[in-house]
Amino acid sequence: MDEETRHRLAEVRSLAEELQPEQIEAEIGRARVEAYQEGMRFAADYVEHGPRRSERADIPLPRS
């Protein structure tokens, strides 16, 4: 993985950490922010480390 990709992944993780779901007033908004945050972390980990071989990928799913 090149340095630019590593830098972009660090930015994605940083953005995920900056999201503050507890500051969202509506419960649906809070759930969406949490799901978005989880998805961003998953994407960064997946790009950096690839799919997990020992288990099925734990892909975050939308909440209903």
UniProtKB/TrEMBL annotation:
Taxonomic source organism: Saccharopolyspora spinosa
Superkingdom of this protein's organism: Bacteria
Name listed for the protein in its UniProt record: Uncharacterized protein
